[in-house]
Structures are given as C-alpha cells and as structure tokens.
Specification:
Blueprint: H1 3-24, H2 31-40, H3 50-59, H4 74-85
Helix pairs in contact: 1-2, 1-4
C-alpha cells in the first residue's frame, strides 16, 4: 500500500471509529489502537479528496475523536457503520 492509500485507509478507519464512539457510544477499537493509528495520520499528504484533505488539515487532532463532529461526510460514516456493524440508529 502506498502512502496515499495508507492515509485514505487510516482516515476512513479512524473516522468510523470516532463516529461509533461519539455518536453511538460504541468502541470498535481499543483506545490504544485508536491513539496509535491517529499518530500515523499525516494531514499534509493529499489523498485526492480535496474536501476531506482540507478537513483533516484543519480539524483533525490525534489526541481526541471530537473532530468527527465537524466531519463533512458524516452521512457516509453512518452508512459504513450501519453496513458493517448492523446499526440502524439515526444520526
């Protein structure tokens, strides 16, 4: 996996985990795993999605998941969460 693909994967995985924790009160990964992965995010790397690249540069903080509240594509996080974890709650 190249650096751009790795950043996309990290950002999606962390965003879904933060969504699950912040909106559904469900932990889908340990705090340690979340923290470790968060430190691997490099907001300077552009992934080809301008909106999310800007969001991660401006709003992402590796020491918390609170940034997910400002995520511009929460509807997509909800879809991923519902599809893979079977939750049917509304945002």
């Amino acid at each position: 996996m190249n650096a751009i693909e790795r950043q996309r994967w990290l950002r999606i995985r962390l965003s879904v985990a933060a969504y699950a924790y912040e909106f559904k009160s469900i932990s889908i990964m340990s705090d340690g795993e979340f923290d470790k992965m968060s430190l691997e995010v490099d907001p300077k790397i552009t992934t080809g999605n301008r909106k999310l690249d800007v969001f991660f540069r401006r709003e992402f903080h590796p020491d918390t998941g609170q940034w997910v509240h400002k995520h511009p594509e929460k509807h997509k996080l909800k879809h991923i969460f519902n599809t893979y974890l079977g939750d049917t709650h509304e945002l």
